[in-house]
From TrEMBL:
This is Major facilitator superfamily (MFS) profile domain-containing protein. Residues 16-500 form the Major facilitator superfamily (MFS) profile domain. GO terms for cellular component: plasma membrane. The keyword Transmembrane applies. Keywords: Cell membrane, Membrane, Transmembrane, Transmembrane helix, Transport. It is a multi-pass membrane protein. Belongs to the major facilitator superfamily. TCR/Tet family. Pfam families: MFS_1 (PF07690). Gene3D superfamilies: MFS general substrate transporter like domains, Multidrug resistance protein D. InterPro entries: EmrB-like, MFS, MFS_dom, MFS_trans_sf.
Amino acid sequence: MRSPQVGLAPWQLRTVLVVLLTGQLLSALDQTIVGTALPTMVGEFGQIDSFSLVVTSYLLTTTAAMALYGKLGDLYGPKPVYMAAIGIFTAGSLLVGFSQDMTQLVIFRAVQGVGAGGLVVLAFTISASVVPPRQLGRVQGMVGAMYALASLVGPLVGGAFTEFVSWRWCFWINVPIGVIGLVVLATNLKLPRISRPTSIDYVGATLLVATISVLVLISIWGGTEYAWSSPQLLALIAAAVLLTALFLLWERRAKDPIVPLALFRKPEIALAMVITFVIGVATIGAYFFLPIYLQIVRGDDPTVAGLNLLPLMIAVMLGSGLSGWLIAAVLGRTKVVVVAGVATMTGGLYLLSMLDVATPAWQLWLYQAVLGVGMGMVISKLIIAVQNLVDRRELGTITAQANFIRVIGSAIGAAAFGAVLAAQLGSAWSSNAVLDALPNAAGVLYQDPASIKELARTQPEVYPEVVEAFAGALSTVFLVAAGLMVLAFALAWFLPNTTLRKDHGHGGAPEREKVGAGE
């Protein structure tokens, strides 16, 4: 039987898939295992108040690296760059596990982030380099399913490591997986050779990293660490404007720009990027704040909360896999899947806004399933749509930009929804005499779930009021996220209804065809 790839044998396809799935497993496990361990990690060093530094350092370097890896993959080939990313991530994981103080923990998490940026971007780039566009839905559906699979076991494994062994094993578990991935890459993966360039846009790369770093700091600190009118935030905003202007001016003149601005002049690409950004903002409302509902409002332990997240993760797997098959085997195009997925996500987030203290488990699971199916249908399918609109030599760059924009959206979403949560809780404290009388009432927001649960024993008259306040605040967060998805739904209707090619003929915008047109 003829291989579905162009110029590659079936065994090579299997090798590529193993490598991609291994890389996605590394990245996914780091995000899903670590979440339940973070309070214990920073608590061991006596710096619970520095919790955000661990998250921020990782987010900054991951986001900044994502755009760079795509270009490096285009220039030097995805295989060596992907190997470097796995090596950096594995080394960072090992070092984090040996951290002896908060400073080391923050620095080594930043090292991990540098590697993680490549794992996210280059998996999609490699698959797009060796798989015909019409089959990308199936392959990338498998990649998304691996991420969801890690999401199923990650919180449970993280809770078990933290409770029964040590939080350090949440990071050391990455080391054998990373080593296996490097061995497979070095000995088996064969990709088409590309010409090695003589230069890289170092000035553009430096300006890009600086701009991204400042923007992420603004999104994290704005309205939380500092008021928007504070000198610190105003200085950061001014720096962001200046750096952005310098970056755009330089990229317009650069011989080999790190971000080819001409790509974004295509309206269909620009539109897909805007939708990707909005989805990144809204999605974080589920991934970041749903566990807060489970652990604070419902009072679940971390491992039980992980079990209660299974419907969401399973639904993401099903939505990703089935929609990938639908695109590859039936439709041959992405628009209808993206529009339907955005609509489903919108409905799922609205349903989550109806959660309260008394919501039965079956409703919680049903609401998550609706959201998860929509998420699985949308996230990787937008990347396929963008990849189908550019030349093959630009695949890495455009894939990196799409992932980069989604992560930036998630960073801004986390900060914005955090501000919404804080504002809603502050309103609850001031309007509730019982909560207002609680010593350091506003500080409850920054306590870990176990500390809030302890109120049920130490101050039973206050605990129900605290839980109700969180339920109301989280309802607002989910409702705002649903509102953003309404915007994404409206924009998705303007995406081009293009047919994906069956070969590697990436060469600009594909033809607009009617369903069933000659193939």
